[in-house]
Design a protein that fits this description.
- It is a single chain.
- The chain is mainly beta.
- It has a single domain (2-275), classed as Beta-galactosidase, Chain A, domain 5 (Distorted Sandwich), CATH 2.70.98.
- Helix content is 5%, strand content 45%.
- It has helices at 44-50, 249-254, and strands spanning 2-4, 11-15, 21-27, 30-31, 54-57, 66-67, 76-77, 89-94, 100-109, 115-124, 131-139, 145-146, 150-156, 165-167, 175-177, 185-191, 196-204, 210-217, 223-229, 236-242, 260-261, 266-275.
- The relative contact order is 0.18.
Length: 276
């Protein structure tokens, strides 16, 4: 892990061993990442990724394992796709001034054996403390690649009290308490609007009453999925901007909701967050 921080904002621990996702996310001495308070779905790649503050799902598949189309050998796309566990090649790293910036490339081999390239750009604004992530995914293989993507922002929910709420125009009534739905866990997925969707979680007394504000590009991430799991040992809440509604892969392909990147084509994704 490499520490990445600016004059203001969180201190992030970027994971060079797994797509340069975020392991720890520190506000002062408090790490918001869930650590081992997560469910174990039997995939050690995802077990490692899920314990961090942010991991990236895709680029060939999102959500739970499903069959690879056009094959009769029963092989499946892995849990949350193929991104996790691919090491990043850092091209630029500057954390010396007020701001912080990092650029990296991640060569990928996806479940079909084809290749892709993730170009990743992290920035922290030293004045506002806002963290920005810009991603470009290019199909470098010889066959079409499903255009799917999800960011998982995972937070240890033991940090929350009864005053913590989810807020956003995409949410029913404009918001509700963080522990929505039936115990010990629930999930929902809703469409978003505007050029950039915005939602918030807070105030979080454990980090001085700060609120986490999240923004994401809606042209390629037109849905927000929310997930929580309080079935011991899990104690986690997930904020998940995502490319597709909550449905199985075959249905999304049949309705043409999943489209494909042809060889040489690219897709761009964007995420921003700040503690205010």
């Amino acid at each position: 892990m490499k520490a990445f921080s600016a004059a203001n904002g969180p201190k992030l621990m970027l994971d060079e061993t797994s797509v340069l996702d975020i392991g720890g996310c520190f506000i002062g001495d408090t790490d918001l990442a869930p650590g081992r308070a997560i469910p174990d779905d039997g995939d050690p790649r995802i077990d490692h990724s899920l314990e961090g503050f942010l991991f990236t799902c895709g680029p060939d598949h999102i959500r739970h394992p499903d069959f690879i189309e056009g094959r009769d050998d029963g092989k499946k796309f892995p849990l949350h796709g193929s991104y996790s566990a691919h090491p990043a090649e850092i091209l630029f790293w500057d954390v010396q001034g007020e701001d912080a910036e990092c650029r990296a490339r991640v060569p990928l081999t996806v479940a079909t054996g084809e290749t892709a390239l993730l170009e990743r750009h992290w920035r922290i604004n030293g004045e506002t403390g806002e963290v920005s992530l810009s991603d470009r995914l290019t199909n470098t293989g010889s066959k079409p690649l499903a255009r799917v993507h999800m960011y998982h922002i995972n937070i240890g929910a033991w940090l929350f009290d009864d005053n913590v709420r989810l807020s956003g125009v995409m949410l029913e009534g404009g918001g509700f308490p963080w522990n929505f739905g039936a115990d010990p866990g629930s999930v929902f997925c809703v469409p978003v609007s505007g050029e950039w969707a915005e939602m918030s979680l807070g105030p979080i007394a454990a980090i001085g009453g700060l609120t986490l504000k999240v923004k994401f590009r809606t042209d390629t991430l037109p849905y927000l999925q929310m997930w929580r799991n309080q079935k011991a040992p899990a104690h986690v809440l997930g904020i998940e901007p995502v490319s597709h509604r909550l449905a199985n892969r075959a249905e999304l392909i049949a309705t043409s909701e999943i489209t494909f990147l042809q060889p040489g084509e690219s897709a761009d994704y964007g995420l921003r967050f700040a503690f205010v």
